[in-house]
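Schema walk-through. Below, the input block comes first and the output block second. Nothing else is stored per chain. Lengths vary across the set, and this one has 137 residues.
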Amino acid sequence: MIVISNTVTLADEEVELTAIRSQGAGGQNVNKVSSAIHLRFDIKASSLPEFYKERLLALKDKRITKEGILVIKAQQYRTQEKNRASALERLVELIKSATVVQKVRRATKPTKGSKLRRLASKTKRSQVKSLRGKVTD
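--- output ---
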């Protein structure tokens, strides 16, 4: 069971984990050992609540295909177990982040006092700079 929140969990069968060979340098070992993990998660066919599914499918994320399949490749670590844990952790983080509702930004105006203080500091600064000019008799 993969726990997303107190009320939402995923069955292990819903997540398809495949071991693949990692990219990059690694010497002789890289050609023999499949330590990277390829995680595939079908959002539409999952047991997630509809709210979660809609929010995930609405994300502009290159890891989500047109068919609604989330693909995560984990190859940061040298062991398969750590990469598997990393991939599952990233899946949970993505699902949690999709459900966070952004606070609506309300436009505000600067106060009259802050405007006056800003203009006063500008005037003071211009006077300081004007005194740096050449002295005339």
